[in-house]
Structures
1.
Amino acid sequence: MKTNGTIVFQSDFGLVDGAVAAMYGVANAVSPSLKLYNLTHDIPQFDIWQASYRLIQTITYWAPGTVFVSVVDPGVGTERKSVVVLTESGHYIVTPDNGTLTHVGRTIGIVERYEIEEARNRLKDSQDSYTFHGRDVYAYTGARLAAGVINLADIGKRLPADEIVIHPSATASMHDGVIEASIDILDARYGSLWTNCPRDLFLSLGVPYGKYSSVQITHHGRIVYGNNLKFGRSFSDVNIGETLIYINSLLNVGIAINQGNFAKAHNVGAGSEWLIRFEKSAML
């Protein structure tokens, strides 16, 4: 799969200083014809899990051959591997192999993985800088790959594609008519809950649109929310201020308040410790 001259950047750097602009500058210096875009630079600091999720939320909507440079790297300067991977969908990701590839590896699949050899793939005269690999290694390598200056064979040592670092997480499952899942992430702007329960698993409960499911949310085993919620196609299926179950853009189950923020209203977070249960309700 050939690259297509497009780079999409993601980081936890924010846009309040020059870090992202420096990465853009490195890419532009490699080739001014590269097309440079942002996925997001508002990943919470050091949040590898969210970086992984935002990649899977986005990557398949870009043309095959696009290069993603994802830099959420709390272990910068340590022995964690810097890699370039090629996905089953034909996309490239340049990133630390620290769990950022979790969702892509599980959902899309990785066919090739190479460790970046910094002696060949590092910005000139940056070898004494140990804390900005996003600029010196990842942006530089990603730009050269996207511009066709190098190919995968020039990256470095080929590694087993199935040995990426995986962030531990639970898999949604159903037992005795009860679905147990986790809250993977929050909709950053609207506070909806995005679970790892796929649409088809939820539909196996036999809850049609317009009917109700019992919902219970726990954190470290403590119940923090419980209610019977309507299953709707869109937010307008309930009144403003009311809560519903819906299928989000990744075809997983979500929980939202119509024109409200569920996470703030109920002090609910996301992560492997935030669990959610669905059961068919007796409500009409």
2.
Amino acid sequence: MHIETRGQGPALGLIHGWAMHGGLFTPLVDRLAERYTLHVVDLPGHGHARGSETPLEPRALAAELVRRVPGAVWLGWSLGGQVALRAALDHPDAVRGLVMVAASPRFVRGDDWPHGVSNTLFGDFGDALRRDFRGTLEGFLALEALGSSSAQHELRKLREQAFERGEPAPRALHEGLSLLDALDLRDELPSLAVPSLWLSGKRDRLVPAGAMPAAAAMAHGARSVAIANAGHAPFLGAADEVAAEIDGFMRSLPGNAS
């Protein structure tokens, strides 16, 4: 993995979503770097780590992150939330807190989980990637922005930034889709031992807003906040609000109150 560091103060790690890279977090980094040390991650196969052959296996990636950046709060967006959550579950002594942004413990809808997408969506994306790699990624960007009150602005930013570090590796994208399709960490949430904040966009078309409060209700002491008029990337269209929620959470942790 590639990690860029900026800022000063308590550590906050940022992990991006499927097919993206850490550069998408620039709006948050710009707003938080005066108070926090931001460690911005590019997962294997993405961004500056696009040449890495390391598998997208959340447990192993989480172990590496807490080794390289001990004592951080970890923020995960979408797929990145699975790595952040794994770090908090497996290494509570090395993780001070968890922020999940549009990141569900289960992405696929089920009989006991109405807060997901169709069980064919990720398989369909995988098939489409094989037929039209770039076109499928462009379609995914539109889906991420869909629903937001600033959808055109968000889509423009996504298109400008998504490939500025090169296209993600096809191998990593297919591994990510398999993860999103199969993952279900709901049974582990009651054992989450670190404070957590669950942020959602009310208009998210990929992770229904109901997923976040439902997940937070399973974790002891967790808090859930829905960002009005935001979609799957709320830190693009509502950066001030998202940054304020993260700052408030960080300040609530022991030792961060000043």
3.
Amino acid sequence: MSTGKKRSGPRGIAPAGNPVLRWIEMFLDYCRSECHLADNTVAAYRRDMAKFATWLGQRRFQDLTIRELADYPAFLSQHELAPVSVARHIVALKVFFRYLQLEGALRDNLAELLGSQKLWQRVPQVLSPEMIDQLLAAPRLHDPLWRRDRALLELLYATGCRASEVSNLRPDDVHLTEGFCLARGKGDKERLVPLGRRAIAAVQEYLTHERPKLIESAAIPPRWLLLSRRGRRLRRERIWELVKCYALRVGAPASVGPHTLRHSFATHVLVGGADLRQVQEMLGHASICTTQIYTHVDPARLKRIHQQFHPRG
């Protein structure tokens, strides 16, 4: 028997009477089952689509004009979203509209015409090689699991992996003799990443002296490389805490996190002469455009390029 109340959409996306709800759920299912996107990515799309459905209201997305759609970024800004978050929402909308085109629900993807300000391409924070050396040496003998923490920091900087990728590394993913590891990125895409001698030494030290003791604390044999003191997987959140703790110890900026080591890795190998395509492969970027942000980071590199190629350089 009906209570006369309207049902809410999933997780408060929009009233159930709005047909866009069905399309959003099918889009999320498509991302999850056919594109094999990570759970975190699908959850982010869900949050972004919730904002879009709220803005859309009872209108049909098929009837939107580019003039109407151009008001969407302003709507996001009015809700006090940071510029980078606004840009991410626009990217999510473009992906959603591409899906609608594939399904025949839309003929033209007007979202592609939206200016996203390219704010996600802002210059990332990068540490100097000298500061990196201090950070990687920050775990000391008096720290409870200093060998593990050194292995963690060395892996983050040596591979350029995301915190979640390092958290999910298994012992058989790391091939110390051959000098590489197997990382699983977004959408469970696998890539091989080289390991330097310092990272190899730090991981070997951890495997020899600390991991066996941590395994003893586990209720069941753990299958992860980096373990907590209870023998469980070292979570992504804990990795953030550790990086920030050691960054504070060496006087690095408070904003430093695992992604700073990823940015620093990419910038330093480019400065050293690596090809942009090689860096793209090591970082696991789907698009070369994402990797190109690192070509703008090092002023000295830009100056060398200018002197080399400009006729009056």
4.
Amino acid sequence: MTASSRRHDIDWLRVIAITILIVYHSVVSFQPWAWTIAFIQSKQSLEWLWIPMELVNIWRIPLLFFVSGMGVCFAMRRRDWRALYFDRLRRIFLPFIFGALVIVPLHFVVYQSYTNQPIAYWPSMGHLWFLGNIMAFVILCLPIFHYCQKSPENAFIGHLKRLLKTPLGLVIIAIPFIVEALFISPEYFSMYAGTVHGFFIGFLAFFFGFCFASIGNTFFQLVNKHKLWLLLIALLLYFIRLFVFGLQGVPVWLISIESMLWLYAVFGYAYGYLNQPSALLSYLSPAVYPIYIVHMFFQYLATSYVLKLDIPTALQLIVIIVVTLLFSWLSYELIIKKVKYLRPLFGLNYK
């Protein structure tokens, strides 16, 4: 992809989604159930923060899968399927294996120390489960993507392009996601990590992300045109979920519809306002991947110290978020980016 054709809105969405992820992980430590998913837990809860978290929680991870599928499509414009496969092995699978063996165990050690458990080496996907799923999706979808690359005017892409010229197309695209939610019937819609629901909704988002990017700007122009209505309806469904159901026992099909509306609105507003180059984006775009990989270690480390400080609970959260972002960035800027042998382990080009 040339610089002039680069989709800056998609790059921004990747940065925004990872930032939301880091904030989300910090907020979890202030929920009364944090210990059940091996997060360091504060004795003082900020349960009210889960109200805005529930707004973003049903679409933040699917957004990353959509963006990843789009990224594969953009990458295949300048390389064949073999080159793409080996590129994803290098950029996705290598950091995944390295992270599971080296990075994730570090924050488990911090957790074990804080909770007075015996210190043990514990290889795990942890928060990097997302990378494992992406690599699986690349392998599963590569034959289809190769066919689309060789036959860009194939019947499926042609039908999809015509379908997405009207809002009805957005309704039809949402149907597979609704069926997935009904068929899998997850206990918690937003429980994606290591679940069957997380795998299948991720697969659908990854696949359709590729398809949306394959048909040019048709999808993006549609959601941009209707972005206000998409946002308003998504907000309405969220308020129904909040005030009618109290965020509990909401039908999964209703959550799925709301999730898709949020995603459509996010893509619409990003296309309308973020699709332009900037020096900040040029810096953040390569930085966000390494920061995502290391952030949990720094978040656990910050949490283990900050929770001992005699300061207001809300201030503790703010300090944890700032320290996590700061030290994750410093590790990228001072170490990962500069040590050429480390760069490939964090998804960066070897220099």
